Amino acid sequence: MINTFKTYADRAQQHPNACARDLLMLMERKKSNLSIAVDVTSKAELLSIANQAGPYICLLKTHIDIVDDFDADLVDQLETLAKQHDFMIFEDRKFADIGNTVKRQYGNGVYKIASWAHITNAHTVPGEGIIDGLKEVGLPLGRGLILLSEMSTKGALTKGDYTVESVAMARRHQDFVFGFIAQHQMNETPDEDFLVLTPGVGLDVKGDGMGQQYHTPHDAIVSRGCDVIIVGRGIYGHPDQIQTQAQRYRDAGWDAYLERCKL
Ligand code: BMP
């Protein structure tokens, strides 16, 4: 696997994408490659979990459209917590429309995602125009995009040529696209350094009865060469143990990274 033996700090020094540099430096500074997926439906719960898990994570992943009582103050408070605890925010919007539509979905509407999410993501099914549309809005704001090149679920169609073409699209937009949601590392040459953020990570279960498939942090980081582990129910599914679980996954992810780099 290419580039996986390098430290996050070394990769930050050389990375061509500003958002990736910020994330890699943050990961090194905080000694965390853990992203929490906070898939809860109330503002108070989301903020409480963000506050408790904040010290252990590099990235907070949201599905902002599932919050029943969303308001602009939620975003203000998330931004304050991000500064206080030193994490970045990733809105898992999974854009999937034509360029002209996604740029409005990204910049406008109720959520105004581009104004607060450092990172968002997109499916590649519409072709490269989706990146052009999102880039028009996100790049001037210093935002970064990741592409879904490989999903974690059983029977996902994101495989073979679809994955190969998704990587080729990213390669042509490295000012804005810096990585993938995937289950494996995607680099093909030593010059390439796409980050892989990987969901479907769990220490206690193998699936959820709805297609999700879990690997351990060690498997994700060491065997599959991924860079950031995304953990949802493994943490927020234990509401009375958010800090304990966040620390547990943070330690498992970081130990795996140290093993991979032979540090
Ligand atoms: P959990 O750890 O509870 O299974 O949550 C995984 C999170 O990652 C969810 O927010 C889901 O939307 C997201 N996700 C995924 O599980 N698989 C993918 O391929 C892409 C995702 O964004």
Structure description:
Keywords: Decarboxylase, Lyase, Pyrimidine biosynthesis. This is Orotidine 5'-phosphate decarboxylase. It comes from Hesseltinella vesiculosa. An eight-stranded parallel β-barrel has the order 1-2-3-4-5-6-7-8, surrounded by seven helices. The model has no long low-confidence stretch (mean pLDDT 97). With 263 residues, it is of the alpha/beta class. It is globular and about 45 Å long. Helix content is 40%, strand content 15%. The protein contains ten helices and eight strands. It has helices at 8-14, 18-30, 43-53, 72-85, 99-107, 129-138, 161-171, 217-223, 233-236, 242-261, and strands spanning 34-37, 59-62, 88-95, 119-123, 144-148, 177-181, 195-198, 228-231. Helix 3 (43-53) runs parallel beside helix 4 (72-85) and helix 8 runs parallel beside helix 10 (242-261). The longest helix has 20 residues, at 242-261. Bound molecules: 6-hydroxyuridine-5'-phosphate. 6-hydroxyuridine-5'-phosphate binds at residues 37, 39, 63, 92, 151-152, 181, 199-200, 212, 230-234.
